[in-house]
Amino acid sequence: FFQNVVQGPEDPILGVTVAYNKDPSPNKLNLGVGAYRTEEGKPLVLNVVRHAEQLIVNDQSRIKEYLPITGLADFNKLSAKLIFGADSPAIQENRIVTVQCLSGTGSLRVGAEFLARHHHRRTIYIPQPTWGNHPKIFTIAGLSVKYYRYYDPATRGLDFRGLLEDLSSAPSGAIVLLHACAHNPTGVDPTNDQWEQIRQLIRSKTLLPFFDSAYQGFASGSLDADAQPVRMFVADGGECFAAQSYAKNMGLYGERVGALSIVCKNADVAGKVESQLKLVVRPMYSNPPIHGAKIVATILKDRDMYNEWTVELKAMADRIISMRKQLFDALQSRGTPGDWSHIIKQIGMFTFTGLNTEQVAFMTKEYHIYMTSDGRISMAGLSSRTVPHLADAIHAAVTR
Ligand code: PMP
């Protein structure tokens, strides 16, 4: 039956790890995938997560029944509080629907399916560039994907004028995907003032904001500060979507735990929207898994564990910031030509280095350093030990 099936391409991000795994060099370095590593280069399970798992395992009343289609109720409530703020009027007014989904990707996908069925304008504007999975998730759900200008290679910063122009010309009702913080891959976020202007534009043009929040707590180290853009949009009483992931900020990558929230005009609409979300989820995967959601709920509802989490989260964010500084200093000390200050200015897990495809290929071939071909490096994959190797490689790539 399948002899005519052609070989599909490797995923541009996960394919980097496939290539890395095949490389026998002892000096190889994987800066492709956005997963946190310790100073020793090891994956990290947070202490607070281990603690929560112990409590879950020891709970004799634990059962393994199916969760409801919308997931664990406690988890949903706590996730909404985490992103919208404990005192959010929208939560008090019961006009937010939150559904547990399969991490950030699954939350985006469920949101996209809902929009394809129930939104009159099936066009979504996503930033140029953006996380490589975004265009695929929305296209496959049946939305038409357009780009808005976001990054200016000349300044290695935000193309704010381009962004405003492109969103100004979007048709009324169009959906706008916004990275809540720590934009992937560029590490460039709007300032608070710029967010306010974006908000005003989106509301005045009656566009629909869809936040992707995959890095809450990773940008600044503060969960509240990183959720500020989302909260600004909810405070004005308007509608919005938010997809949350606990992959990075709780290190729960493979547990696939996340949430989709839809902020509606009122509680009546929210109830109907929830009923339709169930109809989206049921034929896709019936209901989500229990374990990851239990871990998150256990941590979020206990004040001590929550505090312990914020300390561990801040430590991860701080280590990344320190890697930025160390890499910047290493390039300075080598006298590497060019302005590398964007390494310390950019925010979150990634640095968008500005290295081109050829330079990236050179660094992989000669230095066994793996990254996506757009020159994005995961700062979380670096350590004090590997910074000099990376700095040597960048220096060689730009001076050759
Ligand atoms: N959005 C963005 C911008 C991301 O970078 C990621 C993870 N790389 C995700 C969503 C989703 O990740 P996950 O499905 O693992 O939560």
From TrEMBL:
GO terms for molecular function: L-aspartate:2-oxoglutarate aminotransferase activity; pyridoxal phosphate binding. It is an enzyme of class 2 (transferase). Its EC number is 2.6.1.1. Residues 27-394 form the Aminotransferase class I/classII large domain. It comes from Kingdonia uniflora. Keywords: Aminotransferase, Pyridoxal phosphate, Transferase. InterPro entries: Aminotransferase_I/II_large (IPR004839), Asp_trans (IPR000796), NHTrfase_class1_PyrdxlP-BS (IPR004838), PyrdxlP-dep_Trfase (IPR015424), PyrdxlP-dep_Trfase_major (IPR015421), PyrdxlP-dep_Trfase_small (IPR015422). This is Aspartate aminotransferase. PANTHER family: ASPARTATE AMINOTRANSFERASE, ASPARTATE AMINOTRANSFERASE, MITOCHONDRIAL.
